[in-house]
Amino acid sequence: MAVIEKSKTPKTKTPKTTFPTGPKKSKKSKIRKVTKSTSTKKENSNSPKKRNGKKCILYGIPIFIIFALVAALIVVFTLGNVNFGKDKEEVKEVDKKEVEVCKTPECIILAHHLHNWNDDSVDPCKDFFKYSCGKYNEHNTVEYSQMSKKTEILKGLIKEFLKKNESSSSKTENTMKHLFRTCEESKDESIKDKIEKERIEVIKQEAMNIGWPLADPTWRESSFDLAELLEQIPTILDGERNEIGYGIFNIWTPSARKIFIGTTTESFTDFGTVKRNILQVLGKDAPSNLDNIVKEINEFSKELRAIHASIPLSDDPNQKYSNNFEEINDALPVFDYLIKSLLSKGSRSWGKVKNKIYGYNSFLSKIEKIRDLVYKDKRITANYLVYKYVSNLLRFTPGYVECHQVVIDNLPLPSLRVFIRNHFDKGALKDVDNLVEDIRSSFIEMLEKSEWIREKTRIGAIRKAKAMKKTISYPPELEKPGALDKHFNIQLDPSDSYYLTMRKIDKASMNLLMDYVSSDFPMGPHFTLSSNAVYSYFGNSINIYAPLMDDPLFHSSFPNYAKIAGIGIIIGHEIGHGYDIFGINFDENGIFKPWFDAADQKEYENKAACLTNQYNNYDDHSFGKKLNGTFTVKEMMADELGQDVAWRTFKKLDLSQEKKIIGFEDDSIEKLYFQIGATTWCSPRSPLTLQQQLMRSHPTYSFRVNGLFANEKAFAETFNCPAGSPMNPVKKCTMF
Ligand SMILES: [Zn+2]
């Protein structure tokens, strides 16, 4: 297991991301910079123990050298010759001392966080978040946590890449640059109006080509073919870019190789908006009876909404996801045709997809009503569907969004590839892969050792942990030059406008989504370029994004305990989602099939309620005692499980082989583990309102530290926290 091996001297990479705008500094100057800031901090410190440690670093080596020189001179003068053998041994002594402390630039940054964010006037047994992060404000400008800061850095890197006008042989990179350039042009005041006029003309032509009865007096009902009409109007909906809208239903992939049919939302269109949009496209060609037509469109929309809302969204997964595609397709035979048309290989890949399609939220019981509505008046249906399509196309403007953000949002996978190619230390891949396996082993051990679960639960739980799939950053097959180009098939003409480019990207993105389901494309294309990791309930898979396994949370040169405390807890958290209160409904293949023993499930729900209560009574730094753990329970369970298994993994390390961190040579590694774990969530006061926080699925950052570690017995032991102190409550919540 990699994390318990003695750490080798790794090849390090200068963290370009750390000083993105400053002049290039040598490693030495970086060390000086950080040392200076830590020494400033130490001058104000009240901790005599640490000050001694600091002195040792600053003066230890020169004093040693002076002593060595004096000793050598004495030897020369008294014996008349030099004992070279002894000198060599002394040099070895120096080397040995050197390897005990990690001195890579990345470790020095870590040391900087631990020194400078820490507020040692706070009692760690009272408030560990404040103890570890109390001075974070003095060193950071980004709201939220370190991961958000990293995401901001990523944006800057992509922006720089886009602004640099370097030619590339990569089609996807050129698409990124083309989108960026045309986006900037469309914001240029001098040509903005001309571009907009051309765009509206293209949209109008498209609508006319499809056949829009309200603008075409020659339109005949006999020409109405629902499947053909729908085939022409899919668009990717905003948000996670994993949902394709068809006006009367949506299809989407839930970050797993599955397709859901149904609707998550049916946006309401008011009379004024519909009329304005139609007039914007048709201008003087709008029909004279437009008001009546708009009323019909709105009426259709209202009826459709009522059908979709007729069955409220259920929390019961059995009702939520039904494997009944054949029946759905029999009731309205368009779905096989539409999905085939989105697969790059068409019918040839259909066999790999057809068993992975699910009706969402009792869709089957709605489909007959939708069919009746659609065929009631074909002219109104066609007017409505083409209108919906046109209104989706109208949103293809950059608006106020910055152009590099437009590129990141619409081309996340090519953007990730740019980051990996130019800024990512690939040495992390093997390390993180090993770390995932170590955490998985600890997870299985935790299940094996659990004293309260019955055999049925244990067997199902272990089977799920063993089968859990993983993607570490990027599938190797996409690494090859041209591999992404082959899949992301966009034929751009240099004269293509922003609008046309976006349309082509949309089309290619829809193909990728479906090709992912058929396994013709190796990676879920719908993610955000961010420092994050995700678990998919429907795929029983974890996905660790490359930016997470990078500065500041991870580096190959980190001591193993820092790797575990940094992203090991996060990996454990993602695996833990397979066992949160929702995750236990899905088996090892991500299929709804509960495997918990019924009596165990009751007990497990009580354990979840323990966390909810803790959160409800938690006195948060930003919100006081006003939080509600009902929405955050899944995340808190994942946190709890993540810390449990990370600590188990940590306990397997041979700490005598672990390097120290500068300035913490005298501190226990156990203490460092917890402090590093806490710095992940360091953040200033929350910028959210209480209302916004209550809508979030994640608990507050301070709870993610204090709540988490207060439940860990080892924390109280490490910091000698008296029983009953805030970080050592008598009642602790545990899972397995
Ligand atoms: Zn989570």
TrEMBL record:
Residues 124-475 form the Peptidase M13 N-terminal domain. GO terms for biological process: protein processing. Residues 24-35 have a biased composition (Basic residues). GO terms for molecular function: metal ion binding; metalloendopeptidase activity. Keywords: Hydrolase, Membrane, Metal-binding, Metalloprotease, Protease, Transmembrane, Transmembrane helix, Zinc. GO terms for cellular component: plasma membrane. This is Peptidase M13 C-terminal domain-containing protein. It comes from Caenorhabditis nigoni. The lineage of its organism: Eukaryota, Metazoa, Ecdysozoa, Nematoda, Chromadorea.
